[in-house]
Amino acid sequence: MNPAIATLVLILSAALLFVAPLLPAIVELRLKRDAQPLNVIQQYGGDIRHFAQGFRKIAVELHPQLQECVASSATAIGTLPDGDEYVLLGGAGESYLVAATKLDSTWRSVVAAGTDLALPDGLTFAKEIYAVGDLTGGERSTFRAILGDKDIHLQRGSKVIRWAHAARIFRADHDCDLFGRISADQEIQLQSGCVFQRMGAPMIVLGFSDTSASQSPSRSMNAAADATPAPAGRTLYDGDLEVRAGEVIPGSIVTRGKLHIGAGAHVLGSVKSNGHLTIDAGVSVDGSLLSATTTHVGPNCRIGGPVLAEQGVSIECGTHCGAADNPTTVAAPTIELEEGVVVFGSLWARNEGRVVPKA
Amino acid sequence: MIYCLFTIVFVISVYTARHYWFTLNRLFGVQRHPYIDTDTANWPQVTILVAAHNEEKVVANILSALMSVNYPSDRMLVVPVNDRSTDRTREIIDSFVEQFPGRIRPFHRTGGKGGKAAALKDAMELVETEAILIFDADYIPGSGLIKQLVAPFFDPEVGGVMGRVVPLNVGTNLLTRLLDLERSGGYQVDQQARMNLHLVPQHGGTVAGVRLSALREIGGWNENSLTEDTDLTYRLLLNGWQTVYQNRSECYEEVPENWPVRIRQIMRWAKGHNQALAAYGLYLLFGKHRATFRERIDGTLLLGVYAMAPVTLVGWLLALGVFYEGIVPLHGIIALFAFTAYAAVGNFAAFFEIAAAVRLDYTRRRICLLPFLVLGFAVSIFSVSRAFVSQVLAPITGAQFHWDKTERFRTTP
């Protein structure tokens, strides 16, 4: 081969080899197929009621027709703009649903009831349910989503798959599985055996046979601590720490190891442990309670601020987290709460939360 | 010569291993987001400092966004720190003060030392709250961002908090697309891996927060620092305060749209970082302070990242020297080829890290641009090396450090 041609071929081949990996890059640069900024949701504030509020807009549009049904005790059906069918119950909703689900226990259209609604046992509702009055679910029923303008009461063994919101009180009997978001504008009450993920209400009472908490909601222990996440005074311990029973700690404490707070101690600030955190009975922590691993809170404690643990939290009966005028969050991948615990604010278990009987 | 090259290759290998460790941790490890579920709380009073120096193109956007965030308005005070602006920044800020009485307290600075740290230091006279958040004026915070950035302050171990920066003007040109990839790698992988592994997430000085008592304990803002964020990270660390990273606390920013602006930006970052390396490097590694062993190691490596650019350049030169001198290294020709190949292509682990970040962000097609990162890498390595040399020679040449403000490109105020 002519040396000049060979050189040219060599140069072209080398250039081709160099450019080949750049071809997809050049195409992407020119066509801009993936040149949008990452989707940062600017308006979503993380409100637990987000989906309920979205569905309420649909429910509001059904109101005029629903009122007509109530006035005539009639039932009506129709189709929503997104193509979903709906049924409007003006009265005697239970008998209508019983008759309609004789052959198939799965109800596949949106249900809106203009009055109180008591549902039969064992049904599966594949679409949303909306009730203007009180809603009582049947035993062992499964709900995709529920919006109640008054109370919602789920009976034993029921399931919520996505969300439920009650404008007043949400109650779940024993052994309910509450996946997704459960919220109420006044109160949530759960019996033992219930499993949950995310809940939010001014007051969340576990084991509602004990009504003392709901009758006398606690107030924050230290008004001065209300708006301050951690007092200026902080003591950092490099190893494990044991706080003696009855001791009063004037500021916040941070340990790089395990932390054990003895019965009746009072921490005026916040508590952080990078190891296991154990709180004995009757301890008060005005600020927050954090652990890089697991936290166990004994009975009858008072925690003012958020309770956050990176692996798990267990809380014994009689303990109050937050207060009526000082709402807070209890969050961990797994949460175990005994009957008799009261949380004012939010519970968030990424993996699983569970209500267990009092030991 | 060969032993110098050995040393350089060893140091680069340490960084390579670190990049792979971080990336694999992000892909397969347990992810830590300890504060993100703080949904309800008695939210504390917070002061939001907005650093603004000639920001007429962008300052209205951030003030509008802050006025509509999901945070109790009676517990939030916005302090625009107007640092000697000569454009319409003051006028725009004052119009917002009128529009939202009691919610914005401007700090108009007309003189004094230049630079963000100096401006923030002066503005501290208006700050009374324990929680302080800091934004640069080109950022656009979303509705839930303030709560997310305040939540870590419920932890008494936390002195600083850092959110994730997301470029908004991605599609403008090649540079913005490359910077988008770099930011992805830096935040989605690097910062989150450090958070996961209890290492040293870096305070970025914007989309960030600091606890007032921690700031006072470490002596306030260092006005002599070119990168007050790096300086803050290390002073907090040395005093036993953690800086935490919140990967889901995302905020849009504007990245440079032309190379000269980018080069000035990265040179300032490099000089500031090297300042911190000189000030805290040895003390962090060997001194008596509150940092843990793993924080000492990671913190030192983090301090050294910008010093690695000139080191890599020297490595390339040494590799050439070794080749042409015909020096056969200890383990023969194979080792020579390995060193030469490594020195020639630099550190591919960073590319792997960025590719993993793109995957984690579910933005798959932009990964096609990965080969172009060599261009960004080359520009960075020479710019950072230039910054390093000018810094080293500064005592001889008498050159003064000065703060270069990053130019803005947004067209709609």
Task: Describe this protein's structure.
The complex is a heterodimer of chains A (359) and B (413). Chain A is α/β, with parallel strands linked by helices and 359 residues long. Chain A has two domains: 50-185, no CATH class; 215-356, no CATH class. Chain A contains five helices and 31 strands. Chain A has helices at 3-19, 23-31, 50-72, 93-100, 212-215; strands at residues 75-79, 85-89, 106-107, 110-113, 117-118, 124-131, 135-136, 142-148, 152-154, 159-166, 169-172, 177-184, 187-190, 195-206, 234-237, 241-243, 248-249, 252-255, 259-261, 266-267, 271-273, 277-279, 284-285, 289-291, 294-297, 302-303, 307-309, 312-315, 320-321, 328-338, 342-356. Chain A has a 31-stranded mixed sheet that branches. The longest helix of chain A has 23 residues, at 50-72. Chain A starts with a helix and ends with a strand. In chain A, 43% of the residues are buried. Chain B has 413 residues and is an alpha/beta fold. Chain B has a domain at 32-257: Spore Coat Polysaccharide Biosynthesis Protein SpsA, Chain A (Alpha-Beta Complex). Chain B contains 14 helices and seven strands. Chain B has helices at 2-28, 59-67, 89-99, 116-123, 145-150, 174-196, 212-217, 228-238, 259-286, 293-303, 308-325, 332-345, 349-360, 373-397, and strands spanning 46-52, 76-83, 107-109, 131-136, 158-167, 208-211, 242-253. Chain B has a seven-stranded mixed sheet, sandwiched between helices. In chain B, strand 2, helix 3 (89-99) and strand 3 (107-109) form a beta-alpha-beta unit. In chain B, helix 9 (259-286) runs antiparallel to helix 10 (293-303). Chain B starts with a helix and ends in a 16-residue tail after the last helix.
